[in-house]
Design brief:
Blueprint lengths: L8 H8 L12 E6 L16 H13 L3 E6 L10 E8 L5 E8 L7 H6 L10 E5 L6 H17 L4 E4 L11 E4 L3 E3 L4 H12 L8 E4 L4 H14 L7 E9 L2 E8 L5 E11 L3 E2 L7 E2 L2 E10 L8
Helix pairs in contact: 4-5
Amino acid sequence: MTAEERFFCADAARMRGDPMEGTAPHGSVWVLIEYRGGWPANGFDGLDLEPRTKAVLFSAAQAVRARILLVRRYGRHKPEGTRRWAVLRHEKSGAHRQQWGTWSRDEDLAQIVGALGAPGQLGRPPVVLVCAHGRHDTCCAVRGRPVGRALSDRWPDLVWECTHVGGDRFAANVAVAPDGVYYGGLDAGSSVEAVEQHLADRIHADHLRGYTDLFPPQQVAVAALLRRFGPAGRHEYAVAETTRDGTHWRIRVIRHPPRPAAFDVEVRSYRTTPHQLTCRGPAMSSAVVHEVTSIRTAERPRPLS
């Protein structure tokens, strides 16, 4: 294959018009491990760490369905020296908690096991994660690294490059944790605008993939309301009820003050025609798409007594 014929999944997804809304992976706990060396294609799983420590950490993360991401600051850094780790948690109450530590030996990473069971700290600024995992997917590096540079120049203390976060074809991908918000289809300019608005608690539908505490049809319902009524705070909309009838969903979404309201959002799910969805995987796969078919104003919720 010549350079002109080389396949880039993100280019193909844009040409097809693949919808991003409803594609954020479900989850509310993230483990970050600073690793400045080369990242294996399969991320943490491929690291040559002390076996027992690695097994214990993996088991503890799996027990709480935490996603383990390798992270590094943008630019070149010496691989040795003290590095950082973090446990980020989005609680059902909406609270955002973080616990940070350092490691220099593999065995030090066992501290993360205890942190996964600890409450963590409130009030810390969010972490902005930019997928730049080129060994996993070419588009993640080609599109992710310029975004990593732009965001790092603006917010050097908040931004980390990271391993695979899902949705290669939507590169550049940015995940904000523990807020649990995924953005995609970004470039250097749009990423700065999206993160700037996010930090001001004004989430826009543009480039939004979804909220990770919601399932895909729920993510699409909230995104549709953001698109119709404009940007809103991270917790301004809440899913109150979800019912399903085959491929059709009805999702009741409550809007909290300052503009309280309730909406019933109808969503239809279907599978697309198979396509090559990643740069590395030549197999043809179909994707599930969730499409909003109607939005109706529902009876306003009564105030809590």
